[in-house]
Automatic annotation (TrEMBL):
Protein name per UniProt: Solute-binding protein family 3/N-terminal domain-containing protein
Lineage: Bacteria, Pseudomonadati, Thermodesulfobacteriota, Desulfovibrionia, Desulfovibrionales
Signal peptide bounds: 1-23
Source organism (scientific name): Fundidesulfovibrio magnetotacticus
Regions that span the bilayer: none
Keywords: Signal
Length: 239
């Protein structure tokens, strides 16, 4: 009798709340790139995407991987997406679908330790030794240099520069300034103007194509109500 009563109560609860189901959780590849993306999920972009997913009725779980591996696993369907890439990758990675609203803009900068180095365009790098992150497609497509050193992480990249092993490194402005400060790299500076300014996008594996527009709408709404700007500036969500 008690078992029947418990079953009846469960049935009544389900009937009373028919729309309450657990949100779909997507595993999104992310490269460790403070202050934008962090392994603990507290990077500025992590917070932006976490809220965008919630507004779309979804959940995101960020999986920290090297840049190139994250992209390949998203394309292969081992991950559900990749968090922050330039436009146009769907031409090469045919299983990826780009969310049409951008996450943010990246200023791709050359950073130098020597005051004698001048860089104003990609062409100025041809005579220099250059370091960059493996898997950054905009760099791989545009860079022509005297020598190129590729590394997996931003910390490796800036230690390479500080150690005098390359003339310049290429990274985005916000992240580069973070590493210059946290590593205490005296004299390292971004060289103006930026090599490129590009909007950055979330990509989903094609099996989630139907979710791209709800996520784009959520990002647009966050920009309209000021939430996007607040999180990008470093504001933390309320506990």
């Amino acid at each position: 009798m008690a078992l029947i009563l418990r079953f009846q109560l469960l049935l009544l609860a389900l009937l009373a709340f028919p729309g309450q189901t657990s949100a779909e959780t997507l595993r999104i590849g992310a490269t460790s790139a403070p202050p934008i993306s962090q392994p603990d999920g507290n990077g500025r972009l992590d917070r932006i995407l976490d809220e965008a997913f919630r507004r779309a009725g979804l959940e995101a779980r960020f999986v920290t991987l090297p840049s190139e591996r994250s992209l390949r696993e998203a394309d292969a369907g081992m991950l559900d997406g990749d968090n922050n890439r330039v436009a146009g990758l769907e031409a090469t990675y045919s299983n990826l679908v780009r969310v049409s609203e951008s996450n943010m803009n990246y200023e791709f900068m050359a950073f130098a330790a020597s005051s004698n180095v001048r860089v104003e365009s990609w062409a100025d790098l041809e005579r220099l030794s250059v370091g960059h992150i493996v898997g950054w497609k905009i760099v791989e497509e545009n860079l022509r240099a005297a020598s190129v050193t590729k590394v997996a992480t931003a910390e490796e990249l800036f230690r390479l520069l500080a150690g005098g092993r390359v003339d310049v490194v290429i990274y985005h402005r916000l992240g580069g300034e973070h590493y210059v400060n946290t590593l205490g790299l005296q004299g390292v500076r971004p060289l103006e103007p930026p090599l490129a300014v590009r909007p950055m996008y979330l990509y989903l594996n094609r099996r989630h194509e139907a979710l791209a527009e709800p996520l784009a709408q959520a990002l647009r709404a966050m920009k309209a109500d000021g939430r996007h700007a607040a999180l990008l500036a470093g504001e933390r969500p309320a506990p």
